[in-house]
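User: Please predict the structure of the protein below. I'd like the answer in structure-token form so I can feed it into my own downstream comparison script.

Assistant: Understood. Taking the following sequence of 197 residues as input:
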Amino acid sequence: MFFRRSRARRARDAVADQVAERTDDLAAALEAAREAIATASTAAGRKGAELGKEAAVKGRQARRRGAKAARQAADAVDPEQVADLTRRAADKLFPERAKQRRGAARKRRRRLLVGGAGLLGAGVVAGWLTAPKRGAETRQALKDQAAKASEKGWERVAEQPSEGAGTITLEGEQGAEVTQLHHGDGTAPRSTRTPPS
């Protein structure tokens, strides 16, 4: 029996040794796994940090490109076009505001049109009131004015005293000096003109 016990003890010891070996192997594997996880985590952290930095750099570059493109687009677009586009967008969102704005614009145009028409009418009325007579009356008035001016002109010519060649004298009055006109051949005209009496 003693021999049996030792066999059992040996078997138990062998199993215990095998369990211990396997436990040691598992512990070593577990330790290796922990180290691998830590290494991978550190590498992933570094890689994540690198990727984060790279993403941040690319994000900044993208923002700069976007800002540059936005500036170029803003420079290319006329401010009036931008205002027009925003107004149209507001019209789509708020149709009642667009209706009010169009009504106000219509009133403004009407006021300008009525004011212009009133000013034109006032000018026409002022022209009619200050204009001279028309037709035959106007022609007669112009003839009368021309005759008066002509008479005054001849009176002035007759009143100026000057003696010498080329003077015209009226009955008993001294005449004014008159320069004779010459023809192209150097001769003076034969007839002299006398003022109307």
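That's the full token string. Helices lie at 2-76, 79-93, 95-130, 136-159.
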